[in-house]
Each structure stands twice: as C-alpha cells, then as structure tokens.
Amino acid sequence: MKKLLALSMLIPLVMICSCKKQDAAAEQQLAQRKAELDTREKALDERERALAEKEKLARAAMISADAQLRALKKNALRMFPPQQSLPVWRRPITRSSKLVEKKELKSCAL
To answer: How many CA atoms lie within 13 A of 10 on its CB side?
Structure first.
C-alpha cells in the first residue's frame, strides 16, 4: 500500500517536472528565434539606410549634373546669342532665312 501511495505521488511529480523541462526548452527556443529575428531586422535596417543614402547621393549628383548642364547652356547662350541677333551675312543659310534675308536687304536698301 505504501508502494502504491509513493508511486501515485511520484507519477504526478515526474509529469510536472517534465512539463517544466519542456516549457524551459520552448522558452529557450523562443528566445533564440527572437534573437535571430532581431539580428535580421537590424541587418535589414542597415541595408535600407545604405540604400537610402545611395539614392540621396544619386539624386544629389543628378541635380548637380542638371545644374551644370543649365550653367553650360547659359554660358553657351551668352557666348553665342540666338541667330536673330546675328547680322544677316553671319546667319546660317536655310530656305526660310533666304526669304528673311531678301526682305531685310530690301528694307535696308530703302
């Protein structure tokens, strides 16, 4: 009878201990997964920051290149004004310019 009582007390005790071991193992596994997830998240954040920085630099380079192009165009316009301000004898010859030249020469002759 004592053996039966001891056995009936021992079985629930063993079950409780095994459940605690399983809980501890599950908690440890959960903590490990959480740590891995945090590591991946940090790496992803770093990649996103690096990509954002590259995009920012590329945008700045495009803006500066666009500004340089505009400045070159302005300088070119200053150095070479539009064709209408050139004298008749220095303008490039095109069909429409021949007609304009004839009209201007006639008006100058008057």
So the answer is: 6
